[in-house]
Write a structure and sequence with these properties.
single chain; 477 residues; alpha/beta; Aspartate Aminotransferase, domain 2; Aspartate Aminotransferase, domain 1; 3 domains; 7-stranded mixed β-sheet; 3-stranded antiparallel β-sheet; 11% strand; globular; binds pyridoxal-5'-phosphate
Length: 477
């Protein structure tokens, strides 16, 4: 990868250069009215080849899963087969207008219906809605459903949602946006929910719990069934954050362990790239209790035809039309391509890869909760005096590796959250471990190397707060 600084496009400008030469006009010309032509816009003057090279080089400065190992924990940055991209781009899918009507879009509704059934099967759910457009959006839908359920029974005092302290920040945010209060439940010594704290928090003001399994420490929540039993016993419902389905597909069905409603990130586990800011899907699945409250419309079969209709007590629409359809086509193609056996192997290999990598890395970077992990593990980066996780992350960039997620989950100090995914081979994992070992040696022998990193990028260490709060987004020549 060429990481030299690029000149700005304005600096390449040369007066009189142009990318197009138009034929001599043979129609009469006339002056445009004054005021319509800006003389001060100072656009760069460039030939076509310079423009192509400039933007192609810029595009090559990105890290992406197609170019680099990308172990960004909780984000499941796995390889998404190109065949699914081709499927989503087929003209029949791509060009169908969402207002075309059921009569003329039977194929599209059939795909939605079949995907609902397949995802319901994978999660152990009675019914599925593909409406929400992101994980956090699915969470919001789920909390709306829980609230609507209690209100439908005339129970308006349930205003609290319990959330473990290891949860993703979107959980309390979704809960607050839905108008409910969050109550934080601490973790126990082995990284699971503290059961005594849970019991103490349960009363008739609890609407439900939001639980992530495997949790953000990459650990399976062993007490999941007991947690569901206790919350149900107190009249509450159980929300499952299913962003981490990559560890579970074909092996464990959350719906059968007492989860009432759950979102999956199709843009993590099911073949749409995550993290590019593009469209996503946070579909929600629900068991018997909450299925009638799902967002609509959902696809159904009626009298031999596919139709779109609202569930009986729907919380309404979360998004225009039927969700992000291209993402749904990719997920459908992906599941069909792999089949039940293949979906199981995804989870098995995701877990195997994470445990293998953990065994290689934990010698240098201690893991706070060292029991067997699921799809990811959380190590710690403060391995030498004056060395912090941020230094490790920045040094990895110099070695051509996208850093893992850092400083999350919040309950692990100096967290380095590594998720290799199932699509990396043994060599890639060993290469990453070797780089981590090298950085650990540098941290002890030559910490300045780490403090100065990254040194191979156009811009070195940023003031990250200023970069986020006061970004400079336009050219100031
Ligand atoms: C990614 C993720 C989410 C949120 O998903 P978005 O699509 O980014 O909104 C929620 N919880 C966990 C554990 C996640 O990893």
């Amino acid at each position: 990868m060429n990481l030299r600084p690029e000149p700005l496009v304005f600096e390449l400008s040369s007066p009189g250069r142009t990318a197009v030469s138009l034929p001599k006009g043979d129609t009469p010309s006339y002056e445009l009215p004054a005021g319509l032509v800006r003389e001060d816009s100072k656009l760069p003057e460039l030939d076509e080849l310079t423009v192509v090279r400039h933007f192609t080089r810029l595009s090559q400065k990105n890290f992406s899963i197609d170019t680099h190992f990308y172990p960004l924990g909780s984000c499941t940055m796995k390889y998404n087969p190109k065949a699914n991209e081709v499927a989503a781009g087929l003209p029949g899918w791509r060009n169908t207008h969402p207002l075309v009507g059921a009569e003329f879009s039977q194929g599209a509704i059939e795909l939605i219906h079949k995907l609902q059934v397949m995802l319901g099967e994978i999660g152990g759910f009675e019914a599925v809605s593909l409406q929400p457009a992101a994980g956090a959006h699915g969470e919001l839908a789920g909390v709306f459903m829980i609230r609507a359920y209690h209100l439908s029974r005339g129970d308006s005092k349930r205003v609290k949602i319990l959330i473990p302290d290891s949860a993703h920040g979107t959980n309390p945010a979704s809960c607050t946006m839905a108008g409910l209060e969050t109550v934080t439940i601490p973790s126990n010594a082995e990284g699971g929910v503290d059961m005594d704290a849970l019991k103490a928090a349960l009363d008739d003001t609890v609407a439900g719990i939001m639980i992530t399994n495997p949790n953000t420490l990459g650990l399976f929540e062993r007490n999941i069934e007991e947690i569901a039993r206790l919350v149900h016993g107190a009249g509450g419902l159980v929300y499952g954050d299913g962003a981490n389905m990559n560890a579970l597909t074909g092996v464990f069905k959350p719906g059968e362990a007492g989860i009432d409603v759950m979102h999956f990130n199709l843009h993590k586990t099911f073949s749409t790239p995550h993290g590019g800011g593009g469209p996503g899907s946070g579909m929600v699945g629900a068991g018997k209790t909450l299925a009638p409250f799902l967002p609509g419309p959902v696809a159904a079969m009626e009298g031999g035809k596919y139709v779109l209709r609202d569930p009986a007590k729907t919380v309404g629409k979360m998004k225009a039309f039927y969700g992000n359809f291209g993402v749904l086509v990719r997920a459908y193609a992906y599941i069909r391509m792999l089949g039940a056996e293949g979906m199981r192997r995804v989870a098995e290999n995701a877990v195997l890869n994470a445990n293998y990598l953990k065994s290689l890395v934990e010698k240098d970077f201690p893991v706070k909760y060292p029991r067997r992990c699921m799809h990811e593990f959380v190590a710690m980066g403060d391995i030498a005096p004056g060395i912090h996780t941020l230094d490790i992350a920045k040094r990895l960039i110099d070695y051509g590796i996208h850093p893992p997620t850092i400083y999350f989950p919040l309950i692990v100090p100096e967290a380095l959250m590594v998720e290799p995914t199932e699509t990396e081979d043994k060599e890639a994992l060993e290469e990453f471990a070797a780089v981590m070992r090298k950085i650990a040696e540098e941290a002890k022998a030559n910490p300045e190397l780490l403090h100065a990193a990254p040194t191979t990028t156009p811009i070195g260490r940023l003031d990250e707060v200023a970069a986020a709060r006061c970004p400079v987004l336009c050219y100031r020549g």
